[in-house]
């Protein structure tokens, strides 16, 4: 019965695609995206469309996963190599949307790349997590150079200027380690959420390695499909539609999705300059859709007599499944790298 049902759905999808293509009301790219999503959901079977479930069924599934976690057979989430942050979150959880926000130039991309790099590394004999980084600002090469600088602990500007010849052997060894990691990079400047979904599906089928972790840099640069409601509305509606799409993508694929976001300028005029949830730029829907919202806060403009301050705070301002906190970090700009500091502070309110 299930086989016949799937065949009927395939026939329906094929007929629908043929009709829409003949009518020429939608752009070919839109039809491709819609059909790819429909095929993906069909491939998932009934898992995503169970409807009402009895409490017994839910309990059996939940307790089986809980037992696996408690006995060490199943990881609780994707850990990103910052001990206090990983302890707070128990790793990024499947289906979660995580927003990392800050003003321009603070170091959002650097921290996000630190996360995906550390998640992809082998830990305790376990293989690294397969991650995909979508960069709407930087090129493939720029992303790779940041990863290389962070992992090799080599000054990025010296590498770019050709002044790191004394560390060439070490850099080349680090390069060899990087290319063995399950990391994928896309630098397509104009990209939509459906296109990201299609790339993830395509990558999984081509490499036989499922993408487990996605980072998008950054939210406000994502495009809307021409046929979407958000493309015809104001920016707040458009961004709200995109953030909802990212959350649905995380749930459908069963993976954590991290999206970087800009903040409003008002934060710069506030005493102390510490971000808060109302500073998320363009739409309150971002706060609503996110399972976790974290801000980076650090001093950016020292006076002429001051040395640059490397101290930073990672403010977990919203955490749907746990507590909030302020985690002290140390930013090493020359390596595009953050380190977690030993000292701790009280929870963020």
The sequence of SSEs as H and E is: HHHHEHEHHHEHEHEHEEEE
Distance between the termini: 54 Å
Number of strands: 9
Average pLDDT value? 81
Strand order of the largest sheet: 3-2-4-5-1-6-7-8-9
Helix-residue proportion: 40-55%
Q: What integer value in Å does the Rg equal?
A: 22 Å
Structural class: alpha/beta
Structure report:
By secondary structure, the chain is α/β, with parallel strands linked by helices. Helices cover 41% and strands 15% of the residues. It has a nine-stranded mixed β-sheet with strand order 3-2-4-5-1-6-7-8-9. The model is unreliable at 344-349 (pLDDT under 50).
Keywords:
disordered C terminus, 349 residues, 9 strands, 11 helices, 15% strand, nine-stranded mixed β-sheet, alpha/beta
Architecture blueprint of SSEs:
Blueprint: H1 2-23, H2 28-43, H3 55-70, H4 83-89, E1 97-101, H5 108-120, E2 131-135, H6 140-152, H7 156-161, H8 168-178, E3 183-186, H9 193-207, E4 213-217, H10 235-253, E5 257-261, H11 285-289, E6 292-298, E7 311-319, E8 325-332, E9 337-340
Parallel strand pairs: 1-5, 1-6, 2-3, 2-4, 4-5
Antiparallel strand pairs: 6-7, 7-8, 8-9
Helix pairs in contact: 1-2, 2-9, 5-6, 6-8
Structure summarized in a few sentences:
This protein has helices at 2-23, 28-43, 55-70, 83-89, 108-120, 140-152, 156-161, 168-178, 193-207, 235-253, 285-289, and strands at residues 97-101, 131-135, 183-186, 213-217, 257-261, 292-298, 311-319, 325-332, 337-340. With 349 residues, it is α/β, with parallel strands linked by helices.
